[in-house]
Design brief:
Elements (H helix, E strand, L loop, with lengths): L5 E3 L11 E6 L4 E7 L4 E4 L12 E3 L6 E3 L8 E7 L2 E11 L5 E4 L1 H6 L2 H6 E8 L5 E7 L2 E8 L6 E8 L6 E7 L2 E6 L2 H4 L5 H23 L3 E11 L1
Antiparallel strand pairs: 1-6, 2-3, 2-7, 3-4, 5-6, 7-8, 8-16, 9-10, 10-13, 11-12, 11-14, 14-15
Keywords: Membrane, Transmembrane, Transmembrane helix
InterPro entries: Ig-like_dom, Ig-like_dom_sf, Ig-like_fold
Protein name: Ig-like domain-containing protein
Length: 234
């Protein structure tokens, strides 16, 4: 959490005297670190690729493993290790820490609906901002009602829901990615307060302001990561 470190293990307990170790990243196999045991040289190239690895790369002096500190989503990708005749690949995915989804009443929708319907039903919107590779869902108890997914970074992701004021069921809005989730539960008494005329007018502006504030919190959030390793011999 919060700028975690990950170690890409070379698989060796110690380096040999004639080892030449190279670490590469991305589709273009950009060289980011190298160890030449014969000349006792260890070098990290953290100024490449727009300096995304600046002050984040370390090499294990004994095994040649690569350590990436304070990881970010931009460190997601394929890493290649070459040690003499041995080649390994590491697929690393870094997921941003998820914010809690925000549930608000959609007063603009309530004001445009028929009077009889608006007196019986409450229109809601669950929203998040600055998220990627996530799914936003509404649940009624354990049953999925609706969901929306995004693979790239999104400015805003929102999902509507309409419930009756007298509904006693449990509703929740869930934001999840492959490794974590955050849930906000619906409280009809709290979230379905009557819309005043001023709220009808300015409800959308309030929504935008709240989303922007949530985004500022999300930008400062930690990153969590997972990686899969597969090895091949040249």
């Amino acid at each position: 959490m919060g700028g975690d470190s990950v170690t890409l293990n070379s698989g060796f307990t110690e380096m040999m005297d004639d080892d030449l170790i190279r670490w590469r990243f991305g589709s273009e196999n950009t060289l980011i670190a190298q160890i030449n045991v014969m000349v006792s040289s260890m070098t990290v190239y953290d100024d490449v690729l727009d300096e995304r690895f600046r002050d984040r790369l370390k090499l294990d002096h004994q095994t040649g493993s690569l350590i990436i500190t304070n990881t970010r989503t931009e460190h997601t990708g394929l890493y290649q290790l070459q040690i003499n005749s041995v080649s390994k690949s590491f697929s690393l995915t870094v997921y941003a820490h998820l914010p809690f989804p925000d549930i608000i009443r959609d007063c603009s929708s309530s004001s445009s609906s028929s009077s009889s319907s608006s007196q019986q039903n409450c229109s809601l919107v669950c929203s998040v901002v600055n998220v990627g590779h996530v799914t936003l869902s509404w649940y009624k108890g354990n049953s999925l009602l609706s969901s929306i997914s995004v693979s790239d970074l999104s400015i805003s992701l929102s999902l509507p829901l309409e419930v009756e004021y007298q509904d006693n069921n449990t509703y929740s809005c869930v934001l999840n990615n492959p490794i974590s989730n955050q849930t906000t539960h619906l409280d009809i008494t709290q979230h379905c307060q009557p819309c005043s005329d001023s709220v009808h007018c300015c409800g959308f502006s309030e929504t935008v302001i709240r989303l922007v504030l949530s985004a500022l919190v999300g930008v400062a959030a930690a990153a969590v990561l997972v990686y899969d390793i597969r090895s091949t011999r040249e």
